[in-house]
């Protein structure tokens, strides 16, 4: 007897199995996202934009309208769509390189303008598709192809705290959270809230997902999981950082 | 809130940037995405003043990369979206425009050329020809209109939206700082009153379900193999070459018996026309040819125009950017080539007259 694998309804079955490496976190983030789309019943209203980087492998991942764009430019493309047609639900899906390095000005300004879009950023602490170079999120001491002796924070600074930055520059109406593929139920909850926040027209929604890249980390299953669960949260605190309506510390209402 | 911003024909005296804003309204453009750079700023200034009265939108982005990519997004959503830029902004716009080229997204971009390279001057030049015609990483599957008067700025901006949406190639209006800033008279009109049918835009993404069913669209500009890409580009190139003759436009004067043909584009053509008139009055056999579309380039028409001439004089406010297009187009012709290049500055009829007289000696 064979059992059909459980797949979100919004997934495109024809393109499965997907193209990510075994053990990659992208598939898990997209699973949580697929379930969130299903539960909200918005499959026909979603426009999904993906970046260059491993996220581009998701260009035919869902049975939803999709556009794959340039490295770092997913946020403006999706912003342009949302501004031209506010009825669609726009998702910008990108990596940490796309969102925090090359496309950071777009992320910062979309957040500051409170664009009614949902940005999802997969943090795997490296530039994965190009072969594992240092990213803005690479941890101190972490070895990558361009930091072969480990990231030296004296030379290269500390990892970018994306959601904290977005929370700091957004005002009322924004939703900001950091989830992890180590806790899919929670990640799905954050993604769902980020989509609901857009649907309610509140403002910019941003979820960073801590994710795995066993290929470039050169880790086996156990070490991959250990890095994700033990090392990454030391710098990247998992949880909701900003929720509309909630009074936040340091903000004057 | 009226739907038709221009009632009847209207004689006006205004700057080129204002003309562009009016033309975009007349063409029923829905949304402009923009980033400030001289000399195109007033397109945004006029658009933001007039557009809300007609239910139109505007977004000021963080830079030209964003302005180009949001324009791409606006078009994907099914709106007539456009943007405008110049110089270093045009450089940044090449990335989104190459995406538009690859995905056949009918973007409209108005370029008011300024001096270059880099920041250079904020005033005038014709130095963005190479970048606008072939600037992206790709094969230059785009349409570029070079205007020379405010009337043309109006006519061709309207036309650009139709061309873009009809053929699905990114379409550019290549004007310049002089056209942007100077005032000139022209006639505004509602294109539909003149029998010009405006093409309706349609969404590529975010379409409504049909009979309760939605067939998703998946767009990408990444390809896995060389062969896959080769197939796509070959198909697009075939389509481009097929429609190119319908798109090509040019203007010529006094070419039949001319010894010298002056070739120029954009505002420089005004000097060329004036020079030819003066030389003809003096009994000298000089004519002119002007490509209106720089891409696709009306090469066969140019070859025909110069068939009896001895010399072609290429005149431009750049160091041979038009000349490069011309030489490519007339390959195999044995005509003598002469140049008057003045990168970043204007060219007068007197200068062209003097150059022609020298050549006829
Ligand atoms: C303008 C531009 N610069 C560089 C690249 C090369 N490039 C492709 S993917 C990538 C890294 C992507 O890393 P990230 O955004 O972290 O996503 P990941 O692959 O880790 O999911 C780079 C630099 C490109 N495609 N475009
Ligand atoms: S390289 Fe890393 S991020 Fe990319 S698919 Fe493989 S495991 Fe995932």
UniProtKB/TrEMBL annotation, chain A:
Answer yes or no on keyword Oxidoreductase: yes
Coiled coil, from the record: none
The chain positions of domain Thiamine pyrophosphate enzyme TPP-binding read 60-208
Q: Which Gene3D superfamilies match?
A: 3.40.50.970
Cross-referenced InterPro entries, in alphabetical order?
Answer: 2-oxoacid:Fd_oxidoreductase, THDP-binding, TPP_enzyme_TPP-bd
Keywords for the protein's UniProt record, in alphabetical order: Oxidoreductase
* Pfam families in the record: TPP_enzyme_C
Claim: Iron is one of the keywords in the record: no
Write out the GO biological process terms.
cellular respiration
MF terms per GO, please?
A: oxidoreductase activity, acting on the aldehyde or oxo group of donors, iron-sulfur protein as acceptor; thiamine pyrophosphate binding
Protein known as: Thiamine pyrophosphate domain-containing TPP-binding protein
UniProtKB/TrEMBL annotation, chain B:
Query: Is Glycosyltransferase one of the keywords?
Result: no
Coiled coil regions, renumbered to chain: none
- One of its Pfam families is POR_N
Alphabetic keyword roster: Oxidoreductase, Pyruvate
In its UniProt record, a GO molecular function of this protein is: oxidoreductase activity
Ranges for the Pyruvate:ferredoxin oxidoreductase core domain?
258-336
Q: Domain Pyruvate flavodoxin/ferredoxin oxidoreductase pyrimidine binding, which positions?
A: 23-248
- InterPro entries (UniProt xref): 2-oxoacid_oxidoreductase (IPR052368), PFOR_II (IPR033412), Pyrv_Fd/Flavodoxin_OxRdtase_N (IPR002880), THDP-binding (IPR029061), Transketo_C/PFOR_II (IPR009014)
Name this polypeptide is given: Pyruvate flavodoxin/ferredoxin oxidoreductase domain-containing protein
Which source organism?
A: Thermincola ferriacetica
């Amino acid at each position: 007897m064979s059992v059909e694998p459980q797949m979100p309804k919004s997934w495109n079955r024809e393109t499965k199995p997907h193209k990510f490496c075994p053990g990659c976190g992208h598939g898990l983030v997209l699973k949580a996202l697929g379930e969130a789309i299903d539960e909200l019943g918005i499959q026909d209203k979603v426009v999904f934009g993906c970046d260059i980087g491993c996220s581009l492998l998701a260009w035919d991942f869902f049975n939803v309208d999709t556009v794959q764009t340039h490295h770092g430019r997913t946020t403006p493309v999706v912003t342009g769509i949302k501004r031209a047609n506010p009825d669609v639900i726009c998702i910008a899906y990108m990596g940490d390189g796309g969102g925090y390095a090359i496309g950071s000005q777009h992320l910062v300004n979309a957040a500051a303008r409170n664009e009614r879009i949902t940005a999802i950023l997969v943090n795997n602490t490296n530039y994965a598709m190009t072969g594992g170079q240092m990213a803005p999120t690479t941890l101190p001491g972490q070895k990558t192809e361009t930091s072969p002796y480990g990231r030296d924070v004296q030379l290269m600074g500390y990892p970018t705290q994306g959601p904290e930055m977005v929370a700091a520059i957004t005002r009322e109406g924004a939703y900001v959270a950091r989830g992890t593929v180590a806790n899919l139920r929670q990640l799905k909850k954050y993604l769902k809230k980020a989509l609901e926040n857009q649907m309610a027209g509140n403002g910019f929604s941003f979820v960073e997902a801590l994710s795995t890249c066993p290929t470039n980390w050169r880790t086996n299953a156990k070490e991959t999981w250990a890095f994700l669960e033990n090392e990454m949260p030391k710098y990247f605190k998992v949880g909701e950082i900003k929720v509309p309506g909630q009074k936040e510390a340091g903000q004057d209402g | 809130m009226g739907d038709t911003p221009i009632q009847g024909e209207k004689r006006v005296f205004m700057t080129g940037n204002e003309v562009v804003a009016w033309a975009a309204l007349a063409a029923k453009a829905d949304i402009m995405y923009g980033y400030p750079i001289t000399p195109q700023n007033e397109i945004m200034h006029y658009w933001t003043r007039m557009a809300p009265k007609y239910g139109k939108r505007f977004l000021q982005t963080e830079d030209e990369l964003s302005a180009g990519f949001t324009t791409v997004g606006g078009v994907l959503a099914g709106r007539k979206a456009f943007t405008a830029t110049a110089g270093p902004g045009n450089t940044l716009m090449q990335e989104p425009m190459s995406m538009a080229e690859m995905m056949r997204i009918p973007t409209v971009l108005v370029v008011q050329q300024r001096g270059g390279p880099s920041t250079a001057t904020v005033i005038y030049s014709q130095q963005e020809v190479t970048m606008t015609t072939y600037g992206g990483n790709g094969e230059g599957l785009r349409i570029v209109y070079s205007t020379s008067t405010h009337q043309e700025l109006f006519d061709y901006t309207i036309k650009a939206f139709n061309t873009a949406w009809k053929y699905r190639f990114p379409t550019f209006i290549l004007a310049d700082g002089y056209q942007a800033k100077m005032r000139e008279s022209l006639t505004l009109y509602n294109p539909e009153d003149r029998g010009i049918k405006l093409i309706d835009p349609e969404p590529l993404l975010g379409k409504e379900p049909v009979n309760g069913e939605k067939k998703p669209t998946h767009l990408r500009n990444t390809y896995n193999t060389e062969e896959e890409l080769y197939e796509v580009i070959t198909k697009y190139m075939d389509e481009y070459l097929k429609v190119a003759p319908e798109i090509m436009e040019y203007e010529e004067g006094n070419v039949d018996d001319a010894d010298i043909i002056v070739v120029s584009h954009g505002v420089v053509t005004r000097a060329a026309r004036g020079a030819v008139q003066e030389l003809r009055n003096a009994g000298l056999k000089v004519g002119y040819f002007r490509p209106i579309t720089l891409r696709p380039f009306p090469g066969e028409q140019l070859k025909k125009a110069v068939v009896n001439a001895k010399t072609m004089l290429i005149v431009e406010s750049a160091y041979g950017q038009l000349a490069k297009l011309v030489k490519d187009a007339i390959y195999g012709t044995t005509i003598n080539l002469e140049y008057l290049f003045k990168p970043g500055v204007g060219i007068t009829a007197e200068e062209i007259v003097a150059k022609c007289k020298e050549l006829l000696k």
